[in-house]
Write a structure and sequence with these properties.
The complex is a heterodimer of chains A (about 290) and B (about 350). With about 290 residues, chain A is an alpha/beta fold. Chain A has a single domain (about 5-245), classed as Rossmann fold (3-Layer(aba) Sandwich). Chain A has helices at about 40-55, 70-80, 100-110, 135-140, 195-200, 215-220, 270-285, and strands at about 5-10, 10-15, 35-40, 60-65, 85-90, 120, 145-155, 160-165, 170-175, 180-185, 230, 250-255, 265-270. In chain A, strands 9-8-7-10-6-1-4-5-11 form a 9-stranded mixed beta sheet, with helices on both faces. Chain A has a two-stranded antiparallel ribbon with strand order 2-3. In chain A, β4, α2 (about 70-80) and β5 form a beta-alpha-beta unit. Chain B has 2 domains: about 5-200, 3-Layer(aba) Sandwich (Rossmann fold); about 220-340, TPP-binding domain (Rossmann fold, 3-Layer(aba) Sandwich). Helices cover about 25% and strands about 30% of the residues of chain B. Chain B has 8 helices and 18 strands. In chain B, the strands form 4 sheets. In chain B, strands 7-11-6-1-4-5-12 form a 7-stranded parallel beta sheet, sandwiched between helices. In chain B, strands 15-14-16-17-18 form a 5-stranded parallel beta sheet. In chain B, strands 8-9-10 form a 3-stranded antiparallel beta sheet, with helices on one face. Chain B is globular, with a radius of gyration of 22 Å. The chains are: A alpha/beta (about 290), B alpha/beta (about 350). At the A-B interface, α3, α4, β7, β8 and β9 of A face α3, α4, β7, β9 and β10 of B. β9 (about 170-175) of chain A pairs antiparallel with β13 of chain B, so a sheet runs across the interface.
C-alpha cells in the first residue's frame, strides 16, 4: 500500500556545541553564536520515512515545520534528501508557543492535509528536550502513538510493527495506522543530501523568504515546485486563541543564567608529582579507599 | 479535590524508584499546601503486591487499577485512566517520572486536559506569581524549575490557569525517604472498565526484553565521567580502567554520548542520570549547566581539562590542567602505588 507520510521537523539552535560566547554579559542568549540546524532526531525520523517510501511505491513524504520564514531551510534540507514536499507554518500568531500550542498548530495543519497514514518526528528537539510535541499531536488527532522508535520493521495489513526503546531494554509493538511515531536518536542516521536533488531544489523557497530581487525570480513561474507551501493561522483555519503565547498554559516566570557557587579549588598540573600528591591527599583523608 | 497526585510506574509488580522519590517530594508539597497526597498505579495482577511499596511514602489515598492489558504499558489505556480520574478528582498537581513511560504518558494526558506540563524538572517549589500582562496575582503555584536551551539557562515555569500543574522529574533528582508523619493510607480499586473503553487496548506489545541495569551509576560512590575532551572510544577504555580500580562507575557528558563513545544510559546531567557520589572525576568535560545539574552535589569534584577556564573548574575542588590521555594513566598508576 502506498503511504502518505508527514515528517515533523524543527529548526533549532545548535545547543550541543555551545561555546563561551553563547551567553551575553547580561545573561541572555547570544543567538548569533548558535547556528540554526535541522533538529538531529528529526533527521532520524526523516530517514525512517524515506525508507518507507522506498519500500512502498507511490508513497509521499512531506515535511511540516513551524518557525520564522528562514525555517524554510528545513524543508529544502528534506527535499535534498528525497522528500516530495513540505509546509512551513509561519505567522506572528504562532510565536511564543509552548508544546501544547505548538501541537495544536501542527495537528490543525495535518487535518488540513486530508488523509495521512503516518506522522513521524524526532523524539525531542535539542532546544527544549521536552519530547512532548509528538504525543500531544497524536492526542489532538485522536491517533495512537509510538514514541522512542528505533526502527519501523514493517507496514502490513494497515498495521505498523515498530521496535522501540524502553527503560532498560527494547520492545516491539504493533499499532494500527494512522499512527504518530517519534524516533529516538539511536535509530539509523539520515542519508546525506543527493547532489541532483540539491541542484533541483536549491532555489526552492517559501514566498516570505524571498526579496523579489533574486536573479532567478523568473524560475518561480516556470517551475511551480520551487515555491514551497507556506501556511498562516488563517490558512489552516486555526483558532488564534489556541496558537502561540495565548494558547500556552505554561508561562515562563523567570529565566536566569545560573551561577554555581564557586569553590576554592586547588589548581594542579598534570605532572607526576602533582598527580601523586593529590592521590596521596585523597587517600590520607579517606576520600578514596 | 485539589490534591497532589503522583503516577507510580511499575515493571511487572515492582514500583519504580523514581516514583517513590516523587512520592516523597509530593508529600512535602502536599504538606506545604495543606492538601492530601494521592497516588495512582496501573498494571496487571498488582493487587496486594504494590501497595506496600507506595503507602509508606506518606500516601493518603492510593488508586490501584488492576486489569489484563495494563501491563506492559501502552499509551492509550493509561492515558484514559489518568484523564478520567483527574476529571473526577480535580488534582492541582500531578508528578510523574521523566522516564520513557512518563514522557510518553505525561504529554498525552496534558493535551487531553489542556493543562501545562514541564519536562525534566530539577526543582519543584511552591510560590506566588504576578502576571504582568493581566495584573493578576496567584498564590501557591508550583514552580517547575528546569534547565533549558541545552542547559545554558535555568527557567522557572508556572501554569497559572490550568489544572493539574504537571511536571516530570528524572530518576535520582529527588531523594526518597519513608514518611514518618501521619498519612491516611486508604486504598481503592476502581473498576478499570469504567475508565478505559475496550478499544483503547489497540496497540499490542508482541515482544519485550528488559534487563536489569548493567551498572549502578546512580548509586556509585565514585564516578569517573568523560566528555568530549576524552577524544575517542579508546579514551573511554582508560576511564573504565580507572573506575574499575576505584570501584566506581563510568559516566559521560552528553557530548561524549552523542559522539557514540559510550552508552546513552551513562549520561550524567539534566537529560540523563543525576548522581550524588563522594568523588566525581570529570575528564575532558567543559561543564554545561545541563551536565552540572546532574552532578553538582558530588562531595569532591576533580576536573581534568586542558582548558584552565573550563566552566566546570569553578565548582571543582581539584583542577588538573592537562589532557585526559596524559593524566588518567597517572591517576591509575599512583592510586595503585599508594593504596593498599
Amino acid at each position: 500500500m502506498s503511504l502518505n507520510i508527514v515528517v515533523l521537523a524543527k529548526q533549532v539552535p545548535d545547543t550541543r556545541n555551545v561555546g563561551k560566547d553563547a551567553m551575553k554579559a547580561d545573561g541572555t542568549i547570544n543567538r548569533a553564536a548558535l547556528p540554526a540546524i535541522f533538529n538531529p532526531e528529526d533527521l532520524n525520523a526523516l530517514e525512517q520515512a524515506l525508507r518507507l517510501k522506498e519500500q512502498h511505491p507511490g508513497s509521499t513524504v512531506g515535511l511540516l515545520t513551524m518557525g520564522p520564514p528562514r525555517a524554510g531551510e528545513i524543508i529544502r534540507q528534506g527535499l535534498y534528501r528525497g522528500a516530495d514536499t513540505g509546509w512551513l507554518l509561519t505567522d506572528r500568531l504562532f510565536a511564543g508557543a509552548d508544546t501544547l500550542a505548538t501541537s495544536y498548530a501542527l495537528a490543525t495543519a495535518i487535518k488540513r492535509m486530508g488523509h495521512v497514514d503516518i506522522v513521524i518526528g524526532g523524539r525531542q528537539a535539542i532546544d527544549g528536550d521536552t519530547a512532548q510535541v509528538g504525543p500531544q499531536v497524536a492526542q489532538k488527532l485522536g491517533l495512537n502513538q509510538v514514541t522512542y522508535a528505533e526502527e519501523i520493521l514493517k507496514i502490513e495489513d494497515g498495521k505498523a510493527t515498530i521496535r522501540r526503546h524502553i527503560d532498560g531494554g527494547v520492545e516491539t509493538v504493533v499499532a494500527p495506522l494512522p499512527v504518530v511515531i517519534t524516533v529516538n536518536g539511536s535509530a539509523a542516521p539520515c542519508r546525506p543530501c543527493n547532489a541532483k536533488l540539491v541542484m533541483k531544489y536549491k532555489y526552492a523557497t517559501c514566498p516570505m523568504e524571498r526579496t523579489g530581487e533574486e536573479p532567478w525570480t523568473a524560475l518561480y513561474d516556470e517551475r511551480p515546485y520551487l515555491t514551497l507551501n507556506q501556511w498562516s493561522v488563517a490558512d489552516i483555519e486555526g483558532d488564534a486563541e489556541q496558537c502561540g503565547l495565548s494558547g500556552s498554559p505554561t508561562k515562563v516566570k523567570t529565566v536566569k543564567n545560573i551561577v554555581f557557587q564557586a569553590k576554592e579549588s586547588k589548581t594542579l598540573t598534570g605532572s607526576d608529582a602533582d598527580v601523586e600528591g593529590m592521590i596521596k591527599e585523597l587517600l590520607d583523608e579517606k576520600i578514596i579507599g | 479535590m485539589n490534591n497532589v497526585f503522583v503516577y507510580c510506574e511499575i515493571e511487572a509488580t515492582t514500583v519504580a524508584e523514581v516514583s517513590q522519590e516523587l512520592l516523597t517530594k509530593g508529600r512535602k508539597l502536599a504538606n506545604e499546601l495543606g492538601v492530601e497526597l494521592h497516588a495512582v498505579v496501573a498494571g496487571t495482577g498488582i493487587t496486594g503486591k504494590v501497595e506496600n511499596q507506595i503507602l509508606p511514602y506518606g500516601v493518603d489515598k492510593l488508586f490501584v487499577f488492576d486489569r489484563e492489558g495494563l501491563f506492559p504499558y501502552t499509551s492509550a489505556p493509561h492515558t484514559d485512566i489518568l484523564v478520567n480520574l483527574f476529571k473526577e478528582e480535580q488534582p492541582q498537581i500531578c508528578l510523574m517520572g521523566a522516564t520513557v513511560i512518563g514522557r510518553d504518558l505525561g504529554p498525552r494526558v496534558s493535551s487531553s486536559l489542556t493543562s501545562g506540563l514541564t519536562a525534566d524538572c530539577t526543582q519543584l517549589e511552591i510560590g506566588s506569581y504576578d502576571d504582568v500582562k493581566t495584573g493578576k496575582h496567584y498564590d501557591n503555584l508550583l514552580y517547575q524549575i528546569r534547565p533549558a536551551f541545552g542547559g545554558n539557562i535555568v527557567a522557572t515555569i508556572v501554569n497559572p490557569d490550568h489544572r493539574p500543574q504537571m511536571a516530570t522529574v528524572r530518576s535520582g533528582v529527588m531523594q526518597k525517604a519513608l514518611y514518618d508523619g501521619q498519612a491516611r493510607g486508604e486504598v481503592v480499586y476502581p473498576d478499570v472498565d469504567k475508565y478505559v473503553p475496550a478499544e483503547a487496548y489497540v496497540v499490542q506489545v508482541i515482544e519485550r526484553s528488559v534487563q536489569a541495569a548493567q551498572h549502578n551509576l546512580k548509586g556509585a560512590p565514585i564516578v569517573v565521567a568523560g566528555g568530549y575532551g576524552v577524544g575517542s572510544k579508546e579514551g573511554f577504555d582508560m576511564l573504565f580502567k580507572l573506575a574499575h580500580e576505584l570501584h566506581g562507575e563510568v559516566g559521560a557528558s552528553r557530548a561524549a554520548v552523542d559522539a557514540g563513545w559510550v552508552d546513552h544510559d551513562r549520561q550524567v546531567g539534566q537529560t540523563g542520570v543525576t548522581v550524588h557520589p563522594k568523588v566525581y572525576i570529570a575528564c575532558g568535560i567543559s561543564g554545561q549547566i545541563q551536565h552540572i545539574a546532574g552532578m553538582q552535589e558530588a562531595g569532591i569534584i576533580i576536573s581534568i581539562n586542558t582548558d584552565p577556564d573550563a566552566p566546570i573548574n569553578k565548582i571543582a575542588d581539584y583542577v588538573i590542567v592537562g589532557s585526559c590521555e596524559e593524566v588518567v594513566p597517572k591517576l591509575i598508576k599512583y592510586y595503585k602505588q599508594n593504596s593498599k
